[in-house]
Amino acid sequence: MIELRHLRTLLALRETGSLVEAAERVHLTQSALSHQLKDLESRVDSALFVRKTRPVEFTRAGLRLLALADEILPEVRKAERDLARLAGTEQGRLHMAIECHSCFQWLMPTVDYFRDHWPEVEIDIPSGHHFDPLPALAREQLDLVITADPQPLDGVHYVPLFRYEGLLAVARQHSFAGQPYIEPSALAEETLITYPVEQSRLDVFTQFLAPANVRPKEIRTAELTIMMMQLVASGRGVCALPNWALTEYLERDYVSAVKLGEHGIWSTLYAAIREESAEAPWMQDFLRTAKETSFAVLSGIKPANRDEESAA
């Protein structure tokens, strides 16, 4: 018998292209994922993909099951939403704030999808807040906050969405371009371009510069990512951004990117919600949609660590 978990695993394998990344996506060890796939192959008496190919090459049987997954899993999601409505639990309000200047690339498709499927839930992204979003969430002025800087607050629950690597964007002619990575001391003579937020909320400071007791020669701020890229491309500074926020600029060869440290710096993006709303079907569906949309439209991100998932 084919189970839904089998179909979800096959989708993860198609989307990631590798057993290692698919295992991370569905929160299994690679051994457990391989066992599940072998179990499915024994049930259908056919190989589903060609081993040791990257990206994964599916057999005719595998492609047929993927077509089944594409057909069935969206209907399962739709049925789950319908059942929530029948139970009378669909009413709600979703006012959110975003502590992430480059989040709209994946958040807007999530909001559009959610609005189409949960028209009864009032959704808004208010602008012009002159208070900290997380305390406002605790005070019920907001219902969800996208943040990479979780704070311990009573009644606030953090759901990890995905992990991302911070990279340093530099001009294509910069001396850093082409290097595998840089050390913190390399930024001591550079102009660092950042968003206009506190340094304590920027990974390049907290994870990279501050531990090495290094400060850039100059700090310059810009409101928009495209403005930052124009400054970088023209050689007026360098800036650290999430890997996925740089994808389109790197693909267009507009700028170059280099790792921050030999092992890079990684952070996790969270959705902060109040504990009492965590079990609401519409909230669970929004969070699930946010994760699925992120992995569908962003490059270079990874699932949250298991300890982050369990601690959330």
Automatic annotation (TrEMBL):
Keyword Iron-sulfur: no
Pfam family, one: HTH_1
Transcription in keyword set: yes
GO molecular function: DNA-binding transcription factor activity; transcription cis-regulatory region binding
One annotated Gene Ontology cellular component of this protein: cytoplasm
Alphabetical UniProt keywords: Activator, Amino-acid biosynthesis, Cytoplasm, DNA-binding, Methionine biosynthesis, Repressor, Transcription, Transcription regulation
GO BP terms in the entry: methionine biosynthetic process
Top-level division of the source organism's lineage: Bacteria
Location (main, coarse): cytoplasm
Protein name, per record: HTH-type transcriptional regulator MetR
Organism per entry: Vreelandella aquamarina
